[in-house]
């Protein structure tokens, strides 16, 4: 550490030093006189022109000062110290008497302290931080202030003012750690990473070499956290951090940004083509399952990447681009990486625009519902319908849900929109029933955000009371992933079924569910995902999966609905395996409420399937 200050003592007489005052070097010099080493008390009293109590003041400073100071001769040996130093360095006064100050010093402080002493003997005052070795062997941080002891205008020794700053240094180091490191994982935090990234970009720019910034997100981490608890979630993050760190050659190149998000810097790249191999490595370290309380958990990550070919750009821009690319990966299905491209910034702006317009759309009642009928495969009659939200945009026309639902989920608007969908579907169904049409249930999808709301049951109950619809004519569809936390899901579903609402699992076969724990949940129906139905005629594996789902669901007293049925042959296959219901374009596409009302009014509204007798 650099010297904080040195100044030359010009032409000080011994009398002048004694009378300079107690605040600073002169007082410390004067206090040494109490040793009888420089002046006798009699001589001092003869020369002093100050108050009568000045000698007593100097004596009190020497004996009772909370600050330690030592008298050192021209050879650097201890002559005296004003207080017992054992609590500071472990050595007593007697042990230090006559030994060299240098013997206490840590190796890294010896040369610089020697130089300080030389300059002090030349008339300077200096301040410096040093390290000494305690008698028990550990290092101690001290701050020393040195000043010359002068008699007859020549230095005869020096005074060393000593302060133990070990606790202060530890506190400062702890503050620094808290400012730059994540307390849980021990990884650098966002601030540290940004500072380091600026340095790396400058180095890459000087060398004309590529550098990549990765923004990493743990897929479905919130679901894992909800399923196993926050303590296990923290343990998982520690293990993930350890694996990712092993994939990076330089310590400090990985940082925890917040929550389940990490950032990494990839430099020392020979070419941009090398980036793909490094990213594949980051993805591959997640292949082996993690173990939480004896339960193996498979985890994947999504990675957004921003590349600077020659180190140009700043850290904030690079990280923003990587984050934008990460969002695109998550929209596209996760468990992958993607490099930032210029069009992504435009898409991100579009997403913000959509979120703003959706808030306006909720206020202006621009959302409408379409309904897709569900047919009984045994009779061909309509036995239910699914409510599907559409956006009637004033400028863009009818906007399909795939364009605005992701933005609604990300912004949290999905909760408000979802509540509107449930209420409107119940209101419309009750209106049709009052008009004498079929009394059939309407099914509505629940988002994860809705499902995890504590007051979900009370909100559903209030909607049913407000619309007058009987609970048995409302079906709520949840996804398989919502049932991972079996205990919580059981509680929520139990409350809903006690209300009289039925529950179905949507897109069955694409998530995490197993019949082992589904049997313990109050599930009325399974909806086979359209991806299996689509290829049942071409792929024997899909046909076998569909047949197995139907069989096992029936054994658990659950009904089965096949989604995405588009051909007559698919309908025949499903009927032959006793699938209960079908939904898809073969029966009917989603229809506006007016068109569905007409369909429900028809006496024969079934699709053209033979053998309905």
From TrEMBL:
CDD domains: EAL (cd01948), GGDEF (cd01949), PAS (cd00130). SUPFAM superfamilies: EAL domain-like, Nucleotide cyclase, PYP-like sensor domain (PAS domain). Residues 351-604 form the EAL domain. It comes from the Bacteria. The keyword Transmembrane helix applies. Keywords: Membrane, Transmembrane, Transmembrane helix. The keyword Zinc does not apply. The chain crosses the membrane at residues 17-39. InterPro entries: Biofilm_reg_signaling (IPR052155), EAL_dom (IPR001633), EAL_sf (IPR035919), GGDEF_dom (IPR000160), Nucleotide_cyclase (IPR029787), PAS (IPR000014), PAS-assoc_C (IPR000700), PAS-like_dom_sf (IPR035965). Residues 209-342 form the GGDEF domain. Residues 54-124 form the PAS domain. Residues 126-177 form the PAC domain. NCBIfam families: GGDEF, sensory_box. This is PAS domain S-box-containing protein/diguanylate cyclase (GGDEF)-like protein.
